[in-house]
Structures are given as C-alpha cells and as structure tokens.
Write a structure and sequence with these properties.
There is one protein chain. By secondary structure, this protein is mostly helical. It has 3 helices and no strands. It has helices spanning about 1-10, 15-35, 45-75. Helix 1 (about 1-10) runs antiparallel to helix 2 (about 15-35) and helix 2 packs antiparallel against helix 3 (about 45-75). The mean pLDDT is about 80.
C-alpha cells in the first residue's frame, strides 16, 4: 500500500523527491523493525534503529512542513 502511494505522489509532483526518499526509508526501517526478533536482538542494533527512525521522521516532518509553505507562497503570487 505504501509503495503504491509513493509512486502516485512521485508521478504527480517531481519536486518531492527528497520527501519520497525519506518515506521509502521509513517504510524500509518499519519492515526491519517488524522482522526483528525481540528476544535475540542486540541492544546497539535496537538503539541504532530507533535513532534512524527518529532521524527519518524528523527529516520527513521538516520537508513536509517547508513544502506546505512553498505551495502557499506560490498560490499567493
């Protein structure tokens, strides 16, 4: 489902490439989390995955936030 939505967004607007890359990264990390074995996972691997999720989420939030402002600015001109 997420990949179909990603392709739809990419086909619609080519300026959102960074946003799409971050979204695909979040999907990949989510799959990794779902496949992790909680009983046998190394603590450093869990910490690294958590840091990656936070970094990708923050990047996606910032890109989405700045993208919305750009659309408002172009509509006012």
């Amino acid at each position: 489902m997420e990949i179909i939505e990603t392709v739809k967004v990419f086909a619609k607007d080519h300026q959102n490439k960074l946003r799409i890359i971050l979204l695909v990264g979040l999907i990949a990390v989510t799959r990794k989390i779902l496949l992790l074995d909680a009983m046998h996972a190394e603590p450093m691997m869990e910490i690294a995955t958590a840091v990656l999720v936070v970094a990708l989420s923050l990047g996606y939030y910032l890109i989405s936030r700045s993208g919305g402002r750009r659309e408002v600015d172009t509509q006012q001109i």
